[in-house]
Structure formats: C-alpha cells, structure tokens
TrEMBL record:
Its EC number is 2.4.1.258. It comes from the Eukaryota. Its main location: endoplasmic reticulum. Pfam families: ALG3. This is Dol-P-Man:Man(5)GlcNAc(2)-PP-Dol alpha-1,3-mannosyltransferase. The chain crosses the membrane at residues 100-116, 128-145, 202-225, 237-253, 291-311, 332-352, 358-377. It comes from Microcaecilia unicolor. It is found in: Endoplasmic reticulum membrane. Residues 1-21 are annotated as: Disordered. Coiled coil: none annotated. One of its GO terms (molecular function) is dol-P-Man:Man(5)GlcNAc(2)-PP-Dol alpha-1,3-mannosyltransferase activity. Pathway: Protein modification; protein glycosylation. It catalyses: an alpha-D-Man-(1->2)-alpha-D-Man-(1->2)-alpha-D-Man-(1->3)-[alpha-D-Man-(1->6)]-beta-D-Man-(1->4)-beta-D-GlcNAc-(1->4)-alpha-D-GlcNAc-diphospho-di-trans,poly-cis-dolichol + a di-trans,poly-cis-dolichyl beta-D-mannosyl phosphate = an alpha-D-Man-(1->2)-alpha-D-Man-(1->2)-alpha-D-Man-(1->3)-[alpha-D-Man-(1->3)-alpha-D-Man-(1->6)]-beta-D-Man-(1->4)-beta-D-GlcNAc-(1->4)-alpha-D-GlcNAc-diphospho-di-trans,poly-cis-dolichol + a di-trans,poly-cis-dolichyl phosphate + H(+). One of its GO terms (cellular component) is endoplasmic reticulum membrane.
C-alpha cells in the first residue's frame, strides 16, 4: 500500500499518471514536431515565450547602448506640472512643443510617471518603465494571436525583435501612443473573454490617453450591436461616456469648451514636414480643407462597405442588428474570437489608410495588428512571400527619415494590398474564415513525413 501511495504522489507531482507535466508534454511535442514549430499557430505560446525573453535582453541593450532622443517627454512633464500647480483651464496648459491636446486620462497617467521619475528628470528610469510597457504589450498581443490561431509563429519575430522603429517609439522617445495602445490591447483581451462592460471601461480609458483609439470605435459598436442589440448596447456605451466625464470633470468645471476643443480636436492641423503618408503631395493640397473632407468621405464609405459586406456574417439585414437578438429572424451566433479580432483590427486599419497625416510615432497604432491583417486571408505558399514583402516595405517606409515621395507612395501601395486582401477574404464564405494560415505548408510537410 505504501508503494502504491508513493507512485500516486510521484504521478501527481509530475502532472499525471504518465509522469509528464503539461509543460514537459508541450516541450516534448514541440521537439517531436520541431519542423512545424515556426509554422503551426498552435505553437504561438511557446514561440511567444522565447521572443519575450529575447526582448528583455534587446530592450536592456537598447537602453544601455543607444542614446535617448528628447522629443515630447519634457513637454509632457511641463503640461503635467501645469495641472499640479493648479491650472485646470486646458487652454492655459502647454509644454515646449505646444499646447496640451490629449484628454484627461493622459494627465493622470503621466502625473504618475512624473512622480516616479523624479519630476521627469530620471529619463533612464522612464525608459525602463516603457520597456515594461513594451513587454506587457507583447504579452497581450500574443494572447490575442493565440486565440486567433491564424498567423504562423515565425512571423512574430518580425513583429517584435526586428522592428527598430517600434523599439524607438517605446524606449527611446517615450511617446504617449504606447500607453494608449497597451490599455487598448488589454480591453481587446477582455472582449475576447466576453467581459464587454469591463472591456468598454478600459477601452474608454485608452481613448482618454489618446484619441486615435477612436479608430476602433466603429468596429466595436458593430460588434456590440451584433451581440446585444441597441437597447443592451446603450449601457455599455454609457460606461465609456461616464468614464470620460469623470476623468475630465475638473477641467470641464473650469472651462468645458476649452477642454473639449483642446482634448478632442478632430480638426487639428498637422505640419507637412512630419507627414509620413502624404509626402508626394504638394503642401497646399495637403493643407487644403477639401482634401481633408475627401479623405473623411472615403473613410466613411469604406467603413460602410466593410460593415455591410465583410463584418456582417449573420445573413440578416444590417438594420436588424438594432433589434434585441431574441427578436431577430435568425438566432445570433456567438461571436468568435477571430470575428472580434477581424472587425476591430480592420476598423482601425481603414482609419489608418485614410488618415490626414501619419507621424512616425503613429506606427504603433497598427503595427502589432499587421500580421493578423495579412494572414487573415487564406494563405497559400506564395502568399507568405508576398506578406513578408509587404511587412518589409512597411518597415522601410516608416524608417525612412525624412519621408520621401517614394516612401509615402510605397506606404499607400502596401495599405492598398492589405485592404484588397481583407476585402477579398471576408467577401467569401464563412468557411474561409477558419484558421487556414499554414494549411498548404503543413500538408506538404506531412505528406513528406
């Protein structure tokens, strides 16, 4: 009996009667299928763990060896100091690069950074904080990709370790864009888990750091209407609105018009010298109001087309989404992780395609979504090469400083290729939206074996 007890204890300690823990089982399977580890999306967690460890070393090396470049950090600290000194009128808050143009959530979060970094003077500590933000962002992004099960793991190397510009945005420039994006990816993980109310809270928090997060809003609204109908969506939208009200309350009390116009200025004019995407245009065209309105019209038109023909997979009239799900002709299907990711990522990407101007730090707005956008199409062997070429050209375009007519044109060509692929893939039957990323490559490998 004592012998049997010892065997049971040993089996429990090792993870089961076979004597293998889940970790050891996964490692043994990975070793057995080692030729497929970089191709099969099932191995996303394993590859992600290795890349995150590599990223720890890369970030430490960059912080220690590559000089920090001051752009906006000092301005952020001056804007925060203005609030800490008692100024709640947004029209009076400014830094060395101009007025404060971000919502109130930015103020609170960067106030914390202000105190942690000794009033913004300890730049090195700030870099380490942003390195942590970078790693948390990667973990959240990898979790999204693990649920999507579409992207071959070898692509993730190019999504993290190989991008100079993204490392620069996080740890060499300390922009506020990464702060907004890490909160956004946390909210997406909540949506994927079915926590829509809590997800809306963090989504709104991300918006309160920087307005670019609103590019995800059309897709998020569509998903909530699909899942809940109009009446049950309103409380979730109220969470978003109430949080904005509470965060902005001190500034709204002081000067409501000033706060709204500064923090949510949709008509803000951008400088031509910083544009990444419209360098091939004459400056007068870039600044012309008619050009801005035409981009807005194109943005809305493409959103409507995707909403009608790509996002809506229920085979019901789009108006019926306003009804309670129980009152629709067909019972609504549960939203799959793939569909949630597809709608949110395409909503944001369409906004990027038709932006009035993209600056270098805006790359992080969609960088981590690009592998999914490219590999959401049913992929064949030659398509992998095309997708890698598009990723490489995008990285080249965003790393060309100052931007040129050729780099801007290349950026638009890449955007057009991705947009057409998304339209083509989502206009096909629902069957084609199942994970097929490495089907051709894997089947070829298995035949050989």
């Amino acid at each position: 009996m004592a012998g049997r007890l010892r065997k049971r204890v040993a089996a429990a300690a090792s993870g089961g009667p076979g004597g293998r823990s889940p970790l050891m089982h996964s490692l043994r399977r990975a070793w057995h299928d080692r030729r497929l580890v970089l191709l099969d999306p099932r191995y996303t967690p394993l590859v992600a763990a290795v890349l995150c460890l590599a990223e720890v070393l890369i970030n430490l090396w960059v912080i220690q060896r590559v000089p920090y470049t001051e752009i906006d950090w000092q301005a952020y600290m001056e804007e925060v100091e203005g609030v800490l000194n008692g100024t709640y009128d947004y029209t009076q808050l400014k830094g060395q690069t101009g007025p404060l143009v971000y919502p109130a959530g930015f103020v609170y979060i960067f106030t914390a950074f202000y105190y942690i970094t000794d009033h913004g003077t300890n730049i090195r500590l700030g870099q380490y904080l942003f390195a942590v933000l970078y790693l948390v962002t990667l973990l959240l992004v990898f979790r999204v990709y693990d649920q999507a099960q579409k992207v071959p793991p070898y692509v993730f190397f190019f999504m993290c370790c190989a991008s100079y510009r993204i490392h620069s945005i996080f740890i060499l420039r300390l922009f506020n864009d990464p702060v907004a994006m890490v909160i956004l990816f946390f909210s997406i993980n909540l949506f994927l888990e079915g926590h829509w109310s809590l997800g809306c809270f963090f989504y709104s928090l991300a918006v309160s750091v920087k307005m670019n997060i609103l590019l995800f809003a059309p897709g998020l609204l569509f998903l909530m209407l699909s899942q809940f109908g109009l009446l049950r969506t309103i409380p979730k939208l109220s969470i978003c609105a109430l949080l904005q009200l509470l965060l902005g309350l001190p500034f709204l009390i002081e000067n409501p018009t000033g706060y709204l116009l500064r923090a949510f200025d949709l008509g803000r004019q951008f400088l031509f010298k910083w544009t990444v995407n419209w360098r091939f245009l004459p400056e007068e065209v870039f600044l012309h109001r008619g050009f801005h309105l035409s981009l807005l019209a194109a943005h809305l038109a493409v959103l409507v087309l995707f909403c009608l023909y790509c996002w809506n997979r229920s085979q019901e009239n789009i108006i019926s989404l306003l009804k309670d799900p129980k009152q629709r002709k067909r019972p609504p299907q549960l939203l799959t992780a793939d569909h949630i990711i597809f709608v949110l990522f395409t909503s944001n990407f369409i906004g990027m395609c038709f932006s009035r101007s993209l600056h270098y730090q805006f790359y992080v707005w969609y960088f981590h979504t690009l592998p999914y956008l490219l590999w959401s199409v049913p992929v064949k062997k030659h398509t992998h090469l095309l997708n890698m070429l598009v990723l490489g050209l995008l990285e080249l375009s965003w790393n060309t400083y100052p931007s040129t007519s050729y780099s801007s044109a290349t950026l638009h060509v890449c955007h057009a290729v991705i947009l057409l692929q998304l339209w083509y893939s989502s206009s096909r039957s629902e069957e084609n939206h199942r994970p097929q990323t490495t089907q051709g490559l894997l089947s070829g490998r298995r035949k050989k074996e």
